[in-house]
Amino acid sequence: MDTVEHVRERLLARFPGAEVTVVPNGSPAGQHSLLISAAHALEIARYLRDEPGLAYDQCSNVTGIDWRDREVIDIVKDSQPGAPGGPPVVVERKVKRIEPGYLEVVYHLYSLARREGPVVLRLRTGNRSTAVSVPSLTPVWRSCEFQEREVFDLFGVVFTGHPDLRRILMWDGYQDHPMRKDYVEPDDYEWEPTPHGDVLTKAKRHYPAPTAPGMTNDE
Amino acid sequence: MNETQPALTSQERDELRRQGVLLTSLEELYNWGRSHSVWPLNFGLACCAIEMIAASMAKFDIARFGSEVFRPSPRQADLLIVSGTVTKKMAPHVVRLWNQMPEPKYCIAMGACAISGGPFKQGYNVLKGIDRFIPVDIYIPGCPPRPEALLHGLVQLQEKIRGQALTGPEAPRHLRSDDACDCPVPELGAHDIEPSHAPGVWSSPSLVRPDKG
Predict the structure, then answer these.
(1) Could you tell me if A10 and A29 lie in one domain?
(2) Minimum-distance CB partner of A191 among B125, B188, B205
(3) Complex ipTM above 0.85?
(4) Where would I find the H helices in A129-206?
């Protein structure tokens, strides 16, 4: 059984300049993944497929993840001079910073020849708006073609080197990316007898405004 | 024939039939012929289509009702069975197929998705019922409906056809010259289909909350 650390070592031995990071998975499944830099992605993918000791000849799944900008609170410890003659006092303060979001593409690789797998590869884009391209792995695994089109359609990741990058589920003139977390769907709510959850939130926006004092629509 | 007072009531006609005397009207004969030769369009959208195919096969045998001739061209079909989920991407094509069918034509909305969007109703990509664009004659609930339910819907449609008058305001669309037969085909817009429903065909039901008066 190949561990991700084992695969990472082989990759680093072959491509010393590449960035290969293990992204740990804390769940009981413990399916850790390898984050690889976009610059070396294509040659790493070729190596994973063609190297006889690895022979990851099948890409079974390509999917996308949308990571939004998130606010991170760092605790910074400052040492200030304390009372005269005494030790310095350590003061903790919280510093907020915005960690920029990005789009991530995840590839699940199997080796049918060696009955090994999966090895999970991750590629990340620079941000969510302007730098959204990653290299396409379709030239390496042909099975990525439609799935990368789907990620392009629903997440807006642009795959450079893809042979036929068009929308696959939504129509060509469509401009949104519905699986993005900030996607706003068309406001076409229709009445439901028992709305709950997100549908209830939508339903409340569509109930008629209260007409008499004391009449509320908050149920 | 006097419209308000038929020369022969249906009880009298049935009694005559029992005695071996067949009396009929042109309207009855015409509708009898039409109702037993409803040719559906060979067209399926989702899992409901599997049930529709099952209904056409030997076990359920839709041929018993004269509807076994599934036509591959809308020009030759009388009945559009919307069997399955109508995505917004598919909606213009379904409406176009309907417009290509010659009158008299009928539409069956088969299954929860074709009626209302079903489990996908609140999604961004599914039409909330084909009746937003096409006048639907028969709704068959179910997810998917069994072939027997489709056969029942077909029998209901035959009843409806038999009840149609040839003249007057109750006449079907194809016998009235004042009625436009074409349904507007929606456009695939930048964020949604436009319009989201055909104004003449469907209007949003007014929301009445009994508990709020």
Answers:
(1) yes
(2) B205
(3) no
(4) 144-155, 198-206
**Residues B83/B45, Cβ–Cβ less than 8 Å:** yes
Nearest CB among B123, B128, B190 relative to A175 is that of B190
A171 and A209 in a single domain? The answer is no
CA distance B62 to B197: 32
Residue in chain A nearest B191 by alpha carbon: A174
How far does the CA of residue A118 sit from the closest CA of chain B (Å)?
A: 32
In this complex, do A192 and B122 lie within 8 Å of one another by their Cβ atoms?
yes
Residue A98 lies in a domain: no
One domain for residues A17 and A35: yes
B7 touches chain A (CB under 8 A): no
> A218 lies in which domain range?
187-219
Same domain, A174 and A197: no
Residue of B78, B79, B149 whose CA lies nearest to B112 = B149
Q: Please write the tens of the pLDDT for every residue from B143-199.
A: 999 999 999 999 999 999 888 887 777 777 777 666 666 788 898 988 888 888 888
